[in-house]
Amino acid sequence: MNSSKTQLNILIVEDEVPIANGLIGFLRLNPRYNPHWIGNGKDGLEYILKHSPDIVILDIKLPKLTGLEVLKQLKNRMDKMPVVIMVSGQGDMEAVIAAFRLGAYDYFQKPVSPKDLDQTIHRTEQYCKLVKALGEREKEVMFLKEQVGIASRHKLIGASKETRRVKALISTISKSSDACILITGESGTGKEVVARQVHQESERASHHFVAVNCTALSESLFESEMFGHVKGSFTGAVSDRTGFLEFANGGTLLLDEIAELKPELQVKLLRVLDARTYFKVGSTQERKFDVRVIAATNRNIDEMVANGSFRQDLLYRLNTFQIHLEPLRNRVDDIAPLSNYFLEEFSASKNQVKPLLTEGAKQALLTYNYPGNVRELRNAIERAWILSGGGEIIAEHFQFYKATPKSFNLFDNENLNLEEIEKYTILEALKKCNYKRKETSILLGLTPQSLDRRMVKYGIERKG
User: Fold this and answer.
1) CATH number (domain holding residue 407)
2) Is residue 66 part of a domain?
3) Which of 4, 73, 108, 422, CA to CA, is 20 to 30 A from 255?
4) Angle between the 67-77 and 41-51 helix axes, to the nearest 10 degrees?
């Protein structure tokens, strides 16, 4: 029942016309009641499914479909049934008991007392208000539990100087709940983890954190996804849609891979961030939003501004604060605590004792270069944990990509070029995996989509 309505929509499903007319006449005496009458179960069921009245007064004995059959259909086909008050004749107590088991709220025996019916409707309103309040509290509790779970799974782990610097920066920045943040760093360094930690330490932690992958925002869907749309605004808009900004209102919006956003969409985003207002597609109502925007990228965004592929004014808007994440190879002191954390995570998920790492395994972890950064380390630990079968983990359980002498020559070159190194690493990984996209992405610690983008970037042909 929607308590915000000025009227209660009440459906009477009754085949005896005098009884139905009497009920309608009485209910119409109260301006808050909007009664409607249908004379058989089949049409009554269709009306309820289509219009969702607040209250249904349902006779047990009806033509076409009985009241019990209607009640069964409602229970199976509706997420939230209306309040159903059953009406029965003499000798129908077994049917009444069955109706209660199916979710009926109350029942009357014919002839129905108008005074008793009015009192029941009043009790029904109070009951629904309590149910609604309880549901809202349960949602709040579930949301808080979800946030606690997410926070425990997305913690910034590490003991290195760089990680301590980032933690201190997060602590400072989080106190400013409005300023935009730009997080930069290679793929797999933990940019979303940092964004979530900023959210959790801010005053916005009790609201939603929404992560949006900008590579998935096409020009045709950008406004609908970001701002939402109203029913009928375009072909296929069969219902209202909540956009990312509305869903994240009061909380934090992460625009991941912001550098992949097309120039024409950068203009729209900048306009909205400057105005702090937007319009749903198909609506003329201007809406305000209160969202902290965090952007993240693994690209050199300053170079993109220089070559004209990313708007400088948008960068200024997003870059109130910048947090740069160093690759894992530059913060070796984080490897041991991260490995321990991942082992605890995997073991706890199966209620198993955390396996021990042998000295050889620890050495293997510390000497690897991690082109896929923390994401690759997590994958390596998971594989080793599975291969160990619950016993101790040895060096052979890790399936690290072995660099060839040629790759070492790349790193020894005085004129290091990160893109050349990345391209070479991808080519070698593809060869090792016989150009199988999924296996290659796992080996590199990338998602298949990230691998595809890099292959397109470097002009690497897909085979197989």
Assistant:
1) 1.10.10.60
2) yes
3) 422
4) 30
